[in-house]
Design brief:
five-stranded mixed beta sheet; five-stranded antiparallel beta sheet; Immunoglobulin-like; 50% strand; 40 strands; mainly beta
Length: 459
C-alpha cells in the first residue's frame, strides 16, 4: 500500500506546500518524476498517521523580499535625515543589496545602494537635499529582486525666511530702525543674499537684499523712514509681494509727532465701560471724567500737562503720559463745594500745542440750615435738632455730619441721614446738668459747607 501511494505522488502534476516542522522558514515541497515507471493499482485506503516522504522530495526556502521603505515626510534642505528599508525576513548569507533611486535625481542625495547585513531585517541610510536652495517634493525609490517601494519627501529650502524681527510697531518720520532676517537654514560657503521687497517705498528706504554670512542663519538691515506718515510692508517672498498678500510681510507704521485731540467731559459707570457725554457741568463735591488723548500712537512717551484755572473749586491730575499702546484715556476731575455756579477752565498742553475744556461747577447738596427746639433747655433734659438740605436727597440719602462745641454739655450723634426724597432730618441732643447758663454751638456740615445753631443749657 505505501509503495502504491509513493508512486501516485511521483506521477502527479501538482505541488504539495507544507510548513517545514523545524524553524520558521516556509518551504515548498515539490514532487520529482519517478524514473522507475508507474506503480501498480492502489489497494484499499490504509494511509497511516505518519507521513513518509519519498527520498526524491527536497525542501526549497522562500527568499527574503523587500517589505517597506520608510522615509521622512519632509525636511529642510540644509538638514540630513534617515530612511529605512525593511525585508520580509532576515537577509540571507552575504546580505541583501537594495538599489536606491529618485524620480528627480537633482533634488535628493543618497547612496546608490544600501546593504541589509546577513541575518538582519532592516538597514537605515542617510538622505539629504542636493543643494541649500532645493525645494519641492521628491519620490525616493527602493528596489530589490523585482519588488519596488517608494516614499514621498517634501523638501523645504534653507533659503526660506522664517522671521523678520526687531522692527518697532511704530517708527518716527525721518528716523531709522534695525531689523534681523532669519532663514530656515545655515548659509552655505560664500554666504547668501536674501531679497527684500517693500510696498509704499515712498515712505521708507530698505536695502534690496540682506547678506547672511556663510555658516550663519541671520543677517541685519536698516530701514530709514521718510517725512510722511504711512504703513510700510516689507516682504521676503516675491510671490507674496506681487500678490499684495496681507501675510508673509512685516509691518511698520511710520508716524508723525502726535497732536492733542479735543478733550471732552464724560460721566462713566462700571469702570468706564459705560460712558456718556453730559453738559459740561458737575455738581460740587462730585467728580467728572475728562476724556483726553493724542492723535495717534508714537514710539516715544508723550506727556500731556493739565492745569485748573481754579484749583480751589476743581482739581485735576497734573500730567498724563501716553505711549504707543496707550494714547487716550480718562482723567478724573474732583470738585469742591460751591454756593453758586463757578466756571473752571482745564488747560491741556503738549509741547507748544494747547487745548482747553470749560467746566461749570454748580451747587450740589448743601445744608440750608439747622435749628434746635427748644433753643434753651435745663441741664439733664433733651432738645431736638433739625437739619435742612437745599433739595431732596437722592437714592441712598445724604449723610450730614454733626458736632457740638461743648460735647460734655450737649451730647449728640456724629451724623444724621436725610432719607431719599426728603429735604430734612431730625436728631436728638442730650444735655448734662450745669451750674451756670452755658451756650453750645451745634454744627451741621456737608461737602465742606456748614450751618450752625445755638443751644443754651441752664441750671
Amino acid at each position: 500500500m505505501r509503495k502504491g501511494m509513493a508512486s501516485l505522488i511521483v506521477t502527479g502534476v501538482f505541488s504539495l506546500l507544507l510548513i517545514w516542522p523545524q524553524g520558521s522558514d516556509a518551504v515548498e515541497m515539490r514532487a520529482l518524476p519517478n524514473k522507475s515507471g508507474p506503480a501498480g493499482p492502489i489497494q484499499g485506503n490504509t494511509i497511516g498517521p505518519a507521513l513518509n516522504l519519498p527520498k526524491n522530495v527536497r525542501p526549497v526556502t522562500i527568499p527574503a523580499e523587500l517589505d517597506a521603505l520608510t522615509s521622512p515626510a519632509g525636511f529642510n534642505s540644509w538638514q540630513t535625515a534617515t530612511a529605512t528599508v525593511t525585508l520580509t525576513k532576515a537577509a540571507p548569507t552575504g546580505g541583501a543589496t537594495i538599489v536606491l533611486s529618485c524620480n528627480d535625481p537633482s533634488m535628493l542625495a543618497f547612496p546608490p545602494t544600501v546593504a541589509v547585513p546577513a541575518g538582519a531585517l532592516s538597514q537605515t541610510f542617510v538622505v539629504s537635499a542636493k543643494s541649500f536652495a532645493t525645494s519641492g517634493q521628491a519620490i525616493l525609490i527602493a528596489s530589490y529582486q523585482g519588488i519596488v517601494k517608494t516614499g514621498n519627501i517634501q523638501v523645504y529650502p534653507g533659503t526660506r525666511v522664517t522671521t523678520i524681527s526687531g522692527l518697532p510697531n511704530y517708527l518716527k518720520t525721518a528716523s531709522q530702525a534695525a531689523a534681523t532676517v532669519r532663514i530656515a537654514g545655515i548659509a552655505p560657503a560664500g554666504g547668501w543674499n536674501v531679497p527684500l521687497y517693500i510696498r509704499n517705498n515712498s515712505d521708507a528706504v530698505v536695502p534690496a537684499s540682506v547678506f547672511i554670512p556663510a555658516g550663519q542663519s541671520t543677517g541685519s538691515f536698516t530701514i530709514t523712514s521718510r517725512q510722511q506718515a504711512g504703513m510700510i510692508l516689507i516682504y521676503s517672498d516675491q510671490q507674496a509681494y506681487q500678490s499684495s498678500s496681507s501675510t508673509g510681510c512685516t509691518r511698520v507704521q511710520v508716524v508723525v509727532p502726535p497732536k492733542l485731540s479735543n478733550p471732552t467731559f464724560q460721566i462713566c459707570t462700571q469702570n468706564t465701560s459705560s460712558c456718556y457725554a453730559p453738559t459740561a457741568q458737575v455738581e460740587s463735591w462730585k467728580s467728572i471724567n475728562l476724556s483726553i488723548g493724542i492723535s495717534g500712537p508714537y514710539p516715544e512717551p508723550t506727556v500731556v500737562t493739565l492745569t485748573s484755572s481754579n484749583p480751589q473749586v476743581a482739581t485735576v491730575t497734573p500730567s498724563v503720559t501716553f505711549n504707543n499702546t496707550y494714547w487716550y484715556g480718562m482723567v478724573p476731575i474732583s470738585t469742591k463745594a460751591v454756593t453758586s455756579p463757578i466756571p473752571v477752565t482745564i488747560t491741556l498742553k503738549l509741547g507748544a500745542e494747547t487745548k482747553t475744556a470749560q467746566l461749570q461747577v454748580i451747587p450740589g447738596f448743601m445744608v440750608n440750615g439747622v435749628s434746635i427746639a427748644p433753643s434753651s433747655v435745663k441741664g439733664g433734659t433733651h432738645a431736638t435738632g433739625t437739619v435742612t438740605l437745599n433739595k431732596a436727597a437722592t437714592a441712598g440719602g445724604v449723610q450730614i455730619s454733626l458736632t457740638s462745641s461743648r460735647p460734655g454739655t450737649a451730647i449728640l450723634q456724629a451724623g444724621v441721614t436725610v432719607p431719599q426724597g426728603q429735604t430734612s432730618a431730625t436728631f436728638s441732643i442730650a444735655t448734662t446738668p450745669v451750674t451756670a447758663s452755658t451756650n453750645t454751638v451745634i454744627t451741621a456740615s456737608f461737602a465742606g459747607l456748614q450751618k450752625t445753631a445755638n443751644l443754651t443749657v441752664i441750671p
